[in-house]
Design brief:
alpha/beta; FAD/NAD(P)-binding domain; Enolase-like, domain 1; seven-stranded mixed sheet; five-stranded parallel sheet; 22 strands; 31% helix
Length: 449
């Protein structure tokens, strides 16, 4: 009889846990995945996938208006049906959830639809009280929205609940200024809501290039979004009619129909039982791991957002793949965290890879910056003044491109190819020697002077 029930027991069936389990099973390992909710994790169920579909839906508000300048006779009294969009988005979530489930089962992994808690170096206890043993345990429980604490905080929602709203609120206050806050600010605004973005500092989208995020702020304000900076919650009072009075420091009280918290995410380690095997967490609740994703307990590993390294789905997938290859395959796999591209699907979107201008000046000293500030062709004919901005950051000594940052239509699609160039260490001269593809926005990457 085998010493353990499984070779690998994964806690959490998000993108990272699913990839690790699928690959391990494909290598012949006996694998089980414990998931208390649905297969797919944050990205598929309540994150990037349904959110991006809402972004697409919201874009039609401007696209339909622009269509008139392109000769289309669009009726004046167009109506938006939130329930239609919501139903179709949630149906797509169900489809991908089923696909993830099928992928695991087809590769031979067993799915245990229960919460699992670590109760030993090679043991977990399920919600029904039964125990399962495994030679290796992988923690891939992801992260959850951070909830603030103040009087009346219970009246707000997070990005988890936003997909299930009965209707688009007429007035919404979004707390935070990161990518989730800016993405949903654009979605709500385009779907007809008055949006207030409240933030405890003056900065939005920290980590992105300053000039790019300043451009986004300028465009957002021009579109009519209302920003309240240097503001913190004092209290929220719910009226008899259901409206919310939001009291904040430094600003007048505002009355809205919905408050959404987008103030950060915290690793899902509470109640996981890691302390029973001597695994501590850092001050943010994340699980510390080494380069092989191993915790301080030799038989327990962790990947993805629960480790709080880079909270991005593709990173979690890379970590899951590397873990499975190293533990059950040929080995030698690693994850390179340098030059990871990132995007915020705001309105318009921004994207970047590599060093920002500020980071480059601090780390390299000698820096050359090239940029292109232009109005996209579509905006010109549509009569929109909204301008795009592309930046290229180069090492002043070697001419190597160390960062590319942009704001404008489709820039997340463009940055993926640009990331390959930055990762490969190409020089500005090599960009310049490439023939432009005209007329496109992407051609600006090889025309910057």
């Amino acid at each position: 009889m085998p010493e353990y029930d499984y070779d690998l027991l994964t806690i959490g069936a998000g993108s990272g846990g699913t990839r690790a389990s699928r690959v391990a099973a494909a290598h012949g390992a006996r694998v089980a995945v414990a998931e208390e909710y649905r297969v797919g994790g944050t990205c598929v169920i309540r994150g990037c996938v349904p959110k991006k579909l809402l972004v697409y839906g919201a874009h039609f508000a401007e696209d339909l208006k622009d269509a008139q300048r392109f000769g289309w006779r669009v009726p004046e009294n167009l109506e938006f049906d939130w329930k239609c969009l919501q139903t179709n988005v949630l149906a797509e979530v169900d489809r991908i959830n089923a696909a993830y489930t099928t992928t695991l089962e087809t590769n031979g992994a067993q799915i245990i639809h229960q919460r699992a808690t670590v109760t030993g170096p090679n043991e977990v206890t399920l919600a029904n009280g039964t125990t399962k043993t495994a030679k290796t345990i992988l923690v891939a429980t992801g992260a959850r929205p951070l909830l603030p604490e103040f009087p009346g905080a219970e009246h707000g929602i997070t990005s988890n609940e936003v997909f299930h709203l009965d209707a688009i609120p007429k007035r919404v206050l979004i707390a935070g200024a990161g990518y989730i806050a800016n993405e949903f600010a654009g979605i709500f605004h385009q779907l007809g809501a008055h949006v207030i973005v409240m933030n405890r500092t003056k900065d939005i989208l920290r980590g992105y290039d300053l000039q790019i995020r300043d451009r986004l702020l300028q465009i957002s304000m021009m579109k009519g979004l209302d920003f309240r900076f240097d503001a913190t919650f004092e209290k929220i009072v719910k009226r008899e009619d259901g409206c919310l009075d939001v009291h904040m420091t430094g600003h007048d009280t505002v009355t809205v129909d919905c408050v959404m918290y987008a103030i950060g995410r915290v690793p899902n380690t509470d109640g996981l039982g890691l302390e029973t095997v001597g695994i501590g967490v850092d001050d943010k609740g994340a699980v510390p791991v080494d380069e092989q994703n191993r915790t301080t307990c030799p038989s327990i590993f962790a990947i993805g957002d629960v480790t709080n390294r880079i909270q991005l789905t593709p990173v979690a997938i890379r970590e899951g793949q590397a873990f499975a290859e190293n533990q059950f395959g040929k080995g030698g796999a690693s994850v390179d965290y340098d030059c990871v591209p990132a995007a915020c699907f705001s309105h318009p979107p921004i994207a970047g890879v590599g060093m920002t201008e500020s980071e480059a000046r601090q780390r390299l000293g000698s820096v050359k910056v090239y940029s292109s500030d232009f109005r996209p062709m579509k905006n010109v004919l549509a009569g929109r003044d909204e301008r795009s901005l592309y930046k290229m950051i180069c090492d002043g000594e070697t001419d190597r491109v160390v960062g590319i940052h942009m704001i404008g239509p489709d820039c997340p699609e463009i940055i993926q190819a640009a990331a390959v160039c930055v990762k490969a260490g190409l020089t500005k001269a090599q960009f310049d020697s490439t023939v432009a593809l005209h007329p496109t926005m992407a051609e600006e990457l090889v025309l910057m002077r």
